[in-house]
Every structure is written in structure tokens, then in C-alpha cells.
Amino acid sequence: MTYPNLKELGWNAEFLRQLDIDEIGRLTPVRLTSVHRDRVEALGEDGPRTLLLPPGLTTGEVAVGDWVLADTASDPEADRIDRVLDRKSLLHRRAAGTDVRDQLIAANVDTLFITSSFNEDFNPARLERFLALALAAGVQPVFVMTKADLCDDLDPYLDALRDLAPSVPVVALDARDSDAAAQLADWCGPVQTVALLGSSGVGKSTLAATLTGDDIVTQDIRDDDAKGRHTTTARSFHRLKDGGWLIDTPGMRAVRLAGVEEGIDAVFADVAELAAGCRFTDCQHDTEPGCAVQAAIEAGDLDPDRLARWQKLKLEEARHSESLAQANARGKRFGKIVKEIKRAKPRYRE
Ligand SMILES: Nc1nc2c(ncn2[C@@H]2O[C@H](COP(=O)(O)OP(=O)(O)OP(=O)(O)O)[C@@H](O)[C@H]2O)c(=O)[nH]1
Ligand SMILES: [Zn+2]
């Protein structure tokens, strides 16, 4: 069995530069292909490996696509991660439900295929949200529009996408057709890593199968977390027909924003620029005098819906970032209390 070499796995000079002389001989670079509660799976030049984590590092701090240095010599019982290399990009989101922790989705992704279909699923607010996520992560976004075969008139959708983000490439395709791979070939070649994002039913699994040549029905690997709840922590890493890699994330209906303010401002650069011209720095762009945003709306230069979507996203971002900061503070307080309790408790056995 031959395995892909490091370069084929996406390794490049940026990662190599992070190793010091001692590490080059002693440690092995490998790329993470799935993350479980207590261990990770990785792929390197010698094939797949299971790695344990060193003290002080949890699986919540690593993501599929990460490059890590594996220590395969120190402990005869198990291979371990020595350290995680700096990432060139990191997609993350807020965890589901009331959990406000940041959840890592995928690391070192070059291109995010923001997938939507030409039908009722088409939703500008959702696309902007995905776009903000991609830009904040440092990933190139591409709009991949599926079910083109079912739509009589693509133009209104294509126009809407151009208004939304003029510089983002748009590809319209039938996800079931093998031509789809050729249409996306620019982003799927050797050394490139892509990820798919989009709501349920838009055709992500279908497209993944077309791009990889496998029928990779998303297999969520369920793990029990510390509280015994079932969580989906594993993501899959698949070889693309064109030589690159696909990180396949389970359907994400609602991406929770947090810490992506820069991404939002980039997506709404036109509105943000207008807002910078308002008379008051804390202008709410409502009825304030000297509001450049309202002036643009009146002049027909700005769609009021777009202003509303910007405000909604910013509010959501502010709220989530705040709760994240609060949760971190709470976590620290909790940690302190646990330590105090431990200190106070008599120790019967060690
Ligand atoms: N006609 C047509 N059907 C498509 C296309 N893409 C996907 N489908 C169909 O749409 C349905 C849903 O596709 P999936 O690939 O399962 O969608 P998904 O995004 O993976 O959905 P989740 O797994 O729920 O996230 C399937 O019946 C596909 O065959 C397309 O481009 N054209
Ligand atoms: Zn204003």
C-alpha cells in the first residue's frame, strides 16, 4: 500500500518553517483525519496512525486538517501528539444548544464551498453568514449552486449573488453530474483542501460523492462526551478525484457566529464604509440626523434589507461574543472553586 506523501497531504514550506532542527529528526509531521473524545486519527507518509494527546491539550483544541508533530518514539505504548503547528486557516463556530464554547470545525482549509440550491433554500442572510465565517477563518469562499438542472432561470439568483459579494466566484451545477468535478477543478487539485458548508438537502453528500468518486454518505461518528451526552465530534477527510482533500462536515443548518466581527465587516464592506460617514460615531442608522446609511437608502444606492441583515448579524455576533467571554470567566471561576474544594477535602487514597 502506498500512502500520499507529505506534499500531497497539503504540507508546505509554511509548516516546515515551524520546525526546529531537533524536531526534524525526532518528530513526524502528520495531518489529522478525525477527532474523537480521547484520541485522534492522523495520516502521514507511513500511513494512518492513532495518536493520544499530551497533558494540557484536549481534543477540543484540535481539528480535522490540523498538522501536528507526532512523537512515536518516547512512549512504547502509544504514539502521541507533541504539538500542533500554526494553522493557515481555522473554521470554527459556537457549539450547539446552550453550550457557548467555541467549536473547531476544520483547520488548514483553502477553499470553502458555500453550497446552496436554486430554489426555496436560497437565502441571502444565510449565505452572508457563511461568507462571514469563511472570511473570518481566512478561507477562500466559493458559491456552489446546486440543482441548476431543476431551475429554468438562473439569472435572478446569479444577480443576487453578485450583489451580495461581487468578488466571490459562483459555480452553478448539477451535483449528481460527473461534470461537476471539472467545474470545481480549480479548487480541488493536488495539495488543496476544501470543505462543504450548506443547509440540509442542498446536495452536499451528493457533491461529495461526485468529487471523491466514493459514496461517502456522511458517517457521523458519535462519541460520548464527558457528561455522557452523544456528540458528533468526528469529521471525515477524503481524497478528491483531482488530488486534493475534502473535509466533510455534518450538515450545519445554523452557523452560530462568534468572534467573526472582521468577517462580517468584510462581507458588508459597502455598508460599513457608508456607516463610517455618519455624523455620529454611535449612529444606529435609524432616524439620526446626518446618517449616511439612510441617505444611501433614500438615494436607492443601498437595499434596506441588506442594512437589516447587517444589523442582525452584528447584534448576533455581539451577543455571542459576550456570552463566550462570560462563559470563559465562569469557567475560570469554576476551576478555582474546584481547586479550593480539592485542597479542602481530606485525601484517603492517592
Ligand atoms: N436534480 C438534482 N438533484 C440533486 C442535486 N444535488 C442533490 N440532489 C438531490 O437532492 C437530495 C438531497 O441531496 P443530499 O446530497 O443528500 O443533500 P445534503 O446537503 O447532503 O443533505 P444533508 O445530508 O441533510 O445535509 C438527493 O435526493 C439528491 O439526489 C442536483 O444538483 N440536481
Ligand atoms: Zn447612520
TrEMBL record:
Subunit (UniProt): Monomer. Associates with 30S ribosomal subunit, binds 16S rRNA.
Matches recorded under InterPro entries: G_CP_dom, P-loop_NTPase, Ribosome_biogen_GTPase_RsgA, RsgA_GTPase_dom
Family indicated by similarity: Belongs to the TRAFAC class YlqF/YawG GTPase family. RsgA subfamily.
Key word RNA-binding present: yes
Protein name (database record): Small ribosomal subunit biogenesis GTPase RsgA
Location within or outside the cell: Cytoplasm
Alphabetical GO biological process terms: ribosomal small subunit biogenesis
Any Pfam family hit: RsgA_GTPase
Domain CP-type G: residue ranges: 101-255
Binding-site residues, GTP: 146-149, 198-206
Cofactor binding annotation: Binds 1 zinc ion per subunit.
Keyword Lipid biosynthesis applies: no
GO molecular function: GTP binding; GTPase activity; metal ion binding; rRNA binding
EC number(s) from the headed UniProt entry: 3.6.1.-
Residues of the EngC GTPase domain: 107-253
Purpose of the protein: One of several proteins that assist in the late maturation steps of the functional core of the 30S ribosomal subunit. Helps release RbfA from mature subunits. May play a role in the assembly of ribosomal proteins into the subunit. Circularly permuted GTPase that catalyzes slow GTP hydrolysis, GTPase activity is stimulated by the 30S ribosomal subunit.
Organism lineage string: Bacteria, Pseudomonadati, Pseudomonadota, Alphaproteobacteria, Rhodobacterales
